[in-house]
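Help! Submission page says 'invalid entity' but I think these are all valid:
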Amino acid sequence: MKLLEERIKKDGKVLNGDVLKVDSFINHQLDVPFLCALGKEFKRLYEGTPVTKILTVEASGIAIACLTAQYFGVPVVFAKKSKSSNIGDDLYSAEVKSYTHGNVNRILISKDFLKVEDKILIIDDFLASGNALRGLIELCDQAGAAVQGCGVVIEKAYQNGGALIRQRCRVEALARISSMDERGVCFVESGS
Amino acid sequence: MKLLEERIKKDGKVLNGDVLKVDSFINHQLDVPFLCALGKEFKRLYEGTPVTKILTVEASGIAIACLTAQYFGVPVVFAKKSKSSNIGDDLYSAEVKSYTHGNVNRILISKDFLKVEDKILIIDDFLASGNALRGLIELCDQAGAAVQGCGVVIEKAYQNGGALIRQRCRVEALARISSMDERGVCFVESGS
């Protein structure tokens, strides 16, 4: 998606060779009108695919998931990373290694909100190693819900997560990074 | 707001006398079209008030903040509860005691995204003790940004947080609970 690639080139910052900082518009400050445009693009890409619910994981997936969900007219469920006092005990859970935080989280979702009849679109901000998406797919498998596909804003296409997840389901990435370093970011050419 | 009071009566669950579980539509599963209606109501209430940015705190504030921000046409910034590897070091921070999790968090925001010229509307899901709002106001004070007001979905009006925060700034709550127990929830009458 040209609009997103240009924005990443303009406002993204590459740290330590492999961390892409997009916190001025995607995951700390949120450019809401811009994220709405990304949400409409997910809707265009998945037009005709039945979706009953969008699934994401806290915290940075929530914004793009909600702003996308309004174009599908469906609810969002976000998996939680800690057990708060009011989530209840009847849960699905999966382990996810966090690339950014360098630790392992258990992600949790109440069984009330993921059902065998659900048709799930998974939305997240980043796809790199694929650990978060794999964890979310595992939650869907535990519930017997159908995974219709994944939509991610940015894919680090030089890591193997995308290839692994695509063996399982459709994945749409709005920007696919082929390489990056302190001098800048290069994208996989569209259509390739 | 009648629509919200009815939804709380229908789908909210009171646990242990003082925990209101609204996780089927507000903070685990998110009823996005419904939250959009709440966002429009915040816009109506703050019509004419200059707002350059909406501030909230992860994770449960992000959805309502983003869906509200689209009607204001402004970005959201969410304060983070942990220092991820890519947030940077130039931060404002404040301590917040979490009512739900029973611990103390330090909330953090990059100085890049809160400026002296900003006019801030703070949005969150709950107001009870007022600790989260107080922490967010403290971040604004550190930056010298103007707090134009707060908008919360649900206020536990029988706790003292609302009174404390209203000494400092305008607070709009879409539903104000006067009392609740396992038999149900009562609301402060509109206009009172």
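Support: the input was valid. A stray whitespace character was the problem, and the output above is from the cleaned input. The first strand of chain A starts at residue 13 and ends at 15.
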